[in-house]
Amino acid sequence: MTRIGEVSFWYAATGLPQTRRPALRGEVQADVAIIGAGFTGLWTAWYLKQARPDLKVVILEKEFAGYGASGRNGGWLTGGFAWHHDRYARDRGRDAVLNMVAAMNDTVAEVIRVARAEGIEADIHPTEEVMVATNRAQMQRMRDEVAHRRAWGEEDRVFELTQDETRARINIPGALGAMVVKGVARIQPAKLVRGLAEAVERAGVTIHEDSAALALAPGSVTTALGCLRAPIVLRATEGYTATLPGLVREWLPLNSAQIVTPPLPPEVWDRIGWQGAEILGDFNNAYCYCQRTADGRIAVGGRGVPYRFGSRIDQDGAPDRETIARLTAILQRHFPDAAPFGIDHAWCGVLGVPRDWCATVGLDRTTGIGWAGGYVGVGVSTSNLAGRTLADLALGRDTALTALPWVNRQPRKWEPEPLRWLGVHTMYTLLRLADRREERLGIPPSRLARFGNWLTGR
């Protein structure tokens, strides 16, 4: 029987925390307060303590460290620039965007370096990203993406595979070609975030779990049992930002979900290939993301039902039946040899989406309140760059990182309900319709997808 929710398969494999770190009680003073003990908050704390070991840094977490997207994601450490280059360039120029592309690319090596230095064992496997195209429209999108990324500073990192080269790597039915991105890694996210939490504690950071932020103001964060006061307060809540008071329209919590098979026997892997454990996706408009896990399973992720009315959040990672059915269809389409073995686990989570679909990090000097998020699904690597940048901002440093074009970028808020529910669901309906038309008719990229993306500013 398929296991549903309970945070994620990654936690099922490692075990959920059996105890919680003590909640915040009474009034506590710190130099820096951080809301959220996921990758963003933990990386920020780690870099703050590396720079200033004397700082008192306190993290507040509603559940337990790594409960959110940090412990549920697809395990893609990519260092990729997943947003609109032109939107950043309009504000700060092309050179600034090229600097950010290079900084993002460097995050993979940096995460691996810190993990090794801190003794974090997280099934990290340096590899390549392979994005497969299986029809005419996908081939056009693939070639456009290769050209686009090479034009924006990744000419030595991104290239195209022929049909034969693609099938020699992995046997995806109907594969016509693929884009390859060098210098990425596969990880086990729950292991990485738990190891990072322990590392920041060794550095002297205090983490309070079961400590939801009920009120956020300049200089203070109030919880049910206490108040944390600090001149710098950093919001590292990403997809959960909409749950904070007054921020329901700040970033949209977009649902993403995954399924995972049992460990597959060697003869199945002989037919599938995938011997390099590449992180794998496709060029569908409603794309998927997959990995071959360290214990020989296939994990398949995608959007499913994309958004809950009123920016509501899932309950401990439990996805709905429609989402599981959509992901199962992807598994059956791309990996028919694995389909008979069924699904061991299904889970979901949320990621943060700003109105312009572009990540942002910043600090308001007048209030002392900072933020980072809006990663739009590439948070494993982006959170590391965000943590380094937030640390520099909190320390008042002017560095190459604080000059990047995402710093202090503040897009407009999302529309009130029911407009944002209608907009997001209409977009994904159009994307799925476009995929079906492209597959059935063999046409170039469908205008339905273009209109769907325009509708929500994607």
Explain the overall architecture:
This is FAD-binding oxidoreductase. It comes from Gemmobacter denitrificans. There is one protein chain. With 458 residues, the chain is α/β, with parallel strands linked by helices. The protein is 35% helix and 21% strand. Strands 1, 5, 6, 7, 8, 14, 15, 16, 17 and 18 form a 10-stranded mixed sheet that branches. The protein has a 6-stranded mixed sheet with strand order 9-4-3-13-20-19, covered by helices on one side. A hairpin with a 6-residue loop joins strand 15 and strand 16. It starts with a strand and ends with a helix. The relative contact order is 0.18. The model has no long low-confidence stretch (mean pLDDT 97).
Total count of strands: 20
* Apparent shape: globular
In terms of DSSP E residues, the strand content is 15-25%
Counting helices, strands and paired strands, the structural category is alpha/beta
The percent of residues in helical segments reads 25-40%
N-end to C-end Cα span: 37 Å
Mean pLDDT: 97
Report the C-alpha radius of gyration, rounded. 21 Å
Chain oligomer state: single chain
Instruction: Flag low-confidence runs.
Output: none
Largest sheet: 10 strands, mixed
Helix count equals 13
Keyphrases for this structure?
458 residues, alpha/beta, ten-stranded mixed β-sheet, six-stranded mixed β-sheet, 13 helices, 20 strands, 21% strand, globular, FAD-dep_OxRdtase
